[in-house]
Amino acid sequence: MSRSAHPAGPRHADVLPEGHYSAPPADLNALDPKVWSHTVSRTEDGVVTVGGLEVTALAEEFGTPAYFLDESDFRERARAWRTAFGHDADVFYAGKAFLSRAVVRWLYEEGLNLDVCSGGELATALSAGMPADRIAFHGNNKSVHEIRTAVEAGVGRIVLDSFQEIVRVAHIAQSLGKRQRVQIRVTVGVEAHTHEFIATAHEDQKFGIALADGQAAEAVRRTLALDALELVGIHSHIGSQIFDMAGFEVAARRVVALLAAVRDEHGVELPEIDLGGGLGIAYTSDDDPREPHEIAKALSEIVTRECEAARLSTPRISVEPGRAIVGPTAFTLYEVGTVKPLDGLRTYVSVDGGMSDNIRTALYDAEYSVALVSRTSDAGPMLVRVVGKHCESGDIVVKDAFLPADLAPGDLIAVPATGAYCRSMASNYNHALRPPVVAVKDGAARVIVRRETEEDLLRLDVG
Ligand SMILES: *Cc1c(COP(=O)(O)O)cnc(C)c1O
């Protein structure tokens, strides 16, 4: 059966489970500014451009699949966070979302700090010239080597995640003749996902030290007793892709209660509170994320109110957005290889990448949007599932979306909002070569992470 003889859209939508697209968008050629980076638009001849460059030319020069990162959009978002939080707060970009040396330099120039959670991320940050005192080191099982490297480099804070780590970091700092600034990561019993959160006494997860049962208070006691550690604050991170501030409110209230208990027991007011990251972005037109200035206002009001009630002076707030800064700034460009209609169900569109460049759909059931970007089309909508080229049926990039029914091999399609947790989680599954990240700005494109080659693969395989 030919593609054009295969009507799609509403008819196919009937078979979708509730909560999924029930109708195709009014205009398949439209690019919703919510999910695309700021400089993305379509030329009159229908080709999509980013930073003033046509995706067809970009595909020719850099190949596909590839991530195109809109540098001015990245800088604008970083600046918006920095400005929103002002001088009484710190913004730490969570490097795990996506880290490269170019990105580190942009963050430095825009006045942000940086979170790292491994020796590799720390090495990247330091080699790009991020001052160590603007780096925070995270992780639930930092190795002795990683801790020593971080202390030696003079990182601004190490976030302690367990009782063992309190002693481990203190021992290493002492042996180096240093006093290390630390925060204690607590789990406040708030599990937040998108529009819902659950507040419980305990949290069943590997990170942090529980507030419940006086565990966190005991961690504070032990940390304050060690001369090699300077306890500067309490850290809480409640989840990811969160739209609702209510979970942060509960977390802040519980952390401030700990600060008050610490003051009562030890006579010290800890000067910092870190509320973590996890702020959501729009992956599809259904998502409505908040602006940084709204988030900053809400968080500072919550902390101020809780501290006034506890008669504490307001601590310095820090936040750690990763996704909310880099997520919306990039898209993945793919070339369509095959188009396979399954009658009565959907059409499978295979692209030249897949779960090796975007594991989030398989891992988290994440939703994405997709658009035909090398041309416009007047064809009707076709319900598609965009899949990769891996030997794995779970290799899905976009679960359910609509593309024009005349989609054909050779067309370029793009998946927006892939700046966070895509290249950083990319793998070599099936010995795939991880795609490059190309920064685009003011009509110029520059590779900031190059494409892997078969030589790169074989270099690790020592035979
Ligand atoms: C993952 C993580 C972040 C960033 O989360 P986003 O969802 O990307 O904002 C911030 N802080 C900590 C401790 C994290 O683990």
Automatic annotation (TrEMBL):
The keyword Lyase applies. Pyridoxal 5'-phosphate binds at residues 278, 320-323, 421. Keywords: Amino-acid biosynthesis, Decarboxylase, Lyase, Lysine biosynthesis, Pyridoxal phosphate. GO terms for biological process: lysine biosynthetic process via diaminopimelate. Substrate binds at residues 323, 360, 364, 392, 421. Residues 333-419 form the Orn/DAP/Arg decarboxylase 2 C-terminal domain. The keyword Amino-acid biosynthesis applies. CDD domains: PLPDE_III_DapDC. Its cofactor is pyridoxal 5'-phosphate. Residues 72-327 form the Orn/DAP/Arg decarboxylase 2 N-terminal domain. GO terms for molecular function: diaminopimelate decarboxylase activity; pyridoxal phosphate binding. The active site is at residue 391. The modification N6-(pyridoxal phosphate)lysine is found at residue 96. It comes from the Bacteria. It is an enzyme of class 4 (lyase). It holds the Pfam family Orn_DAP_Arg_deC. Its EC number is 4.1.1.20. Homodimer. NCBIfam families: lysA. Specifically catalyzes the decarboxylation of meso-diaminopimelate (meso-DAP) to L-lysine. Belongs to the Orn/Lys/Arg decarboxylase class-II family. LysA subfamily. This is Diaminopimelate decarboxylase. It comes from Streptomyces triticiradicis.
